[in-house]
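quick one before i forget lol
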Amino acid sequence: MIDLKNAVAETIIINPPHLQQRRTSSEALCKAIGLTQVRFSEGTEGLPHQLACALAHRKAMNAVSAWPSLVLEDDLELASGAAVLPPLPENADIVYLSVSPFGCLPWSYDNLALARHRAIQGLSLASVHDADWLKLHSMSGAVAILYVTEKGLDTWKQATLQSRRFGGAFDVFTAYAMKDVNVYAPHRPVFCEDAALQRDDLRRNAALFEQRLNFTRTPLRTFEAGDQTVVTYKGQVITVEAVALTEDTLQWQVVSVEKSDRPKSPFPS
């Protein structure tokens, strides 16, 4: 294992200047980890959330000047007591240091008719690469991304343009693009959302707030080719199967769609 500070050349934190508490907390987090080359990217204000998020991440990506470059959102804490990583996989383009249970069906006409450009809880798709790393095939989330190569960075920049053109969250289009680059995550996340830094409107229902926090705290479930899972989306029960595109690349394939009597998830897809 190596200290994160020794694996990162620079750190860029997305933070509008008016969110001073988050900025102060991010500075303290980086200091505790030992990250020294730290800069802030101010993000974008006054726009719808999805567009603002895409533009904020693109602005941070445009500021990358050294490799590997760590881009963090400003509401994070360490998921465990230590910021350590195994040596990076040799062919890694991008490494995710936080996780999410949300993933996407592949971009196709049939799947767009079913779910549009939306991430669905339960569709994160990861497989075991080795004892240290998971290979990510579909995951929607962007709170802690280590850009290792220019190819990875350019592919994620393209996702911001697709987000603006087609509508949908930036991290939906990065989930689509995971088949085109080598994306990894450690078996256990390094960063998670900090409860103290979340918006007041998220705190109004304690049970839902805890569920939201667990999204970034819970290690990913892993799949192999042939494994199936079942998710619900907008009154539909969708059964999907992991299928192999190449020797080390999986994607979801829809097996069946039925009507659901389960209540709708309170979290937006």
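fyi Helices lie at 4-7, 20-33, 49-62, 109-115, 150-166, 170-177, 206-217.
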